[in-house]
Amino acid sequence: MKKRPLILVTNDDGITAPGIRMLIEVMKEIGDVVVVAPNSPQSAMGHAITVNSTLYLEKVTIDKDLDTEYSCSGTPVDCVKIAIDQIIKGKPDICVSGINHGSNSATNVIYSGTMSAAVEAGMNGIPAIGFSLCNFSWNANFDEIRSFVKSITLQALERGMQNGVVLNVNFPKLAFSEIKGIKICRQANATWVEKFDERTNPHGKKYYWLSGTFENHDNGEDTDEWALAHGYVSIVPVQYDLTAYHAIQQLNTWEF
Amino acid sequence: MKKRPLILVTNDDGITAPGIRMLIEVMKEIGDVVVVAPNSPQSAMGHAITVNSTLYLEKVTIDKDLDTEYSCSGTPVDCVKIAIDQIIKGKPDICVSGINHGSNSATNVIYSGTMSAAVEAGMNGIPAIGFSLCNFSWNANFDEIRSFVKSITLQALERGMQNGVVLNVNFPKLAFSEIKGIKICRQANATWVEKFDERTNPHGKKYYWLSGTFENHDNGEDTDEWALAHGYVSIVPVQYDLTAYHAIQQLNTWEF
To answer: Which residues form a coiled coil (chains A, B) (predicted)?
Structure first.
């Protein structure tokens, strides 16, 4: 590891969220920090990118220690792309995303802007980690997980990451002293069961709010959901080769 | 297979796009069709969902043969969710998405609204296929691939789909007589190299357009890119368990 690695920090809750401010604090202890993060909340944006409209990039000074902090009008994935091309003009040593206010465990990884930013970095050959705390509150206590964030990032820098793999790290909503340790897990097979909330606007027109219940159908003790429910930090290695290799053989028997 | 399967049709180019109109034409020959598709273009929205604003759902009559055709103000994934909860009030026999105006091969699957709609259906236990034609033109000729769309959908209905797997089908921009057949493939390892286009608005403020070059670094002859370049229809089985199982053992050696 270089003495002072270059660290790109982003998130999906927006550049002023307490979660990213804590992540920046920790990363400043490890290396040189560049922040490019959304100028507004971008939760549940998945891997969306901005192709049909323009992007604004604003140099901001939220942390007086940092020379390179930018807010971007786009999605988390846009932030990673524009950071590489316009700000860093190359690749950082690592990209960390978060700390998300709320869980990105199980299938939530697919909807998550935080994790999609990490995946985008990975697709560009940059080691990447998404961090999420299972607490949706704006005032969540990120101090309790501070040392874990640091040690996981240091290990990633020292050990390096396998090609095509990024990390999805989730923290239980517990005090530091209550956290039992870290478990390497698989993604739990859980789903959201939607229940749209139908309302009528002042002009008499119906509209809907997306709402739903998270249902975990997976009893495995090797899942992220199990780890979090039992007081552990979960780390899931995530890949972006989505090929279901095990299905190829059967599909070759289809007759078109 | 039931005599008349219930087929949910959606896309990301919007409900009036020629690609979805052709898909609806083909599906009407196979079963009973429900359309819930975006009321505006939603390309490159990935797996984004609408959580911080409201959704509108409008009953429309574009095809006089259809009783249940709705335009939705949300993303492709929103369309699938609201179709299940509010329109079908249950699960269709299959969900087909597209036909996309433009390729969703290789890593494009991750950005694609078309494929994310199919993945969302899969996550809800619904067999699902995303169809894309490697031609971005609004006036692309979808007639040439009509028979392939039908035969692939019929096979999926007859054979059923493996749990956790949806299909990413891409068609080369060729006349029917030039298409050599269908190949079951893996996702090519290709990336977009970004080059943002910097401009100045009339008020003197800088802004950017996302732009880039698609680079295929994958020489494999078993990839979707290879198949398409050689005149074949590519089918990649896609999974939404993103766990990189092969990386778990190495991560267990990390010392936190």
So the answer is: none
Q: Per-residue b/e over A5-26, b at no fewer than 16 CB within 10 Å?
A: bbbbbbbbbbbebbbbbbbbbb
Closest CA to A45 of A98, A110, A101: A110
Q: Give the tens place of pLDDT for each residue, B12-61.
A: 999 999 999 999 999 999 999 999 999 999 989 999 999 999 999 999 99
H-state helical runs in B96-241 = 108-111, 113-123, 146-159, 224-229
**CB contact B89 to A (< 8 Å):** no
SS (H, E, C) B153-167: HHHHHHHCCCCCEEE
Predicted confidence band at B3 (pLDDT cuts at 50, 70, 90)? confident
Chain A residues close to B101, C-beta within 8 Å: none
Per-residue b or e along B186-208, where b marks 16 or more CB atoms closer than 10 Å to that residue's CB: bbbbbbbebebeeeeeeeeeebb
Q: Which residues of A are annotated as a binding site for a divalent metal cation?
A: 12-13, 43, 100
Query: A6-188+221-241: which CATH topology?
Result: Stationary-phase Survival Protein Sure Homolog; Chain: A, (3.40.1210)
In B, residues 118-147, which contact A (CB 8 Å cutoff)? 119, 123-124
B180-219 residues touching A, CB cutoff 8 A: 181-182, 184, 186-187, 189, 191, 194-196, 198-199, 205-210, 212
Model ipTM?
0.95
Across the interface, whether the CB atoms of B78 and A109 are under 8 A apart is answered no
Which residues from chain B sit within 8 angstroms of residue A167, using beta carbons? 251
User: Is the N-terminal amide bond of A99 cis, ω within 30° of 0?
Assistant: yes
| Cβ-contact A234, A169 below 8 angstroms | yes
The domain B6-188+220-251 is placed in CATH, from the list 3.40.640.10, 3.40.1210.10, 3.30.1300.10, 3.10.350.10, at 3.40.1210.10
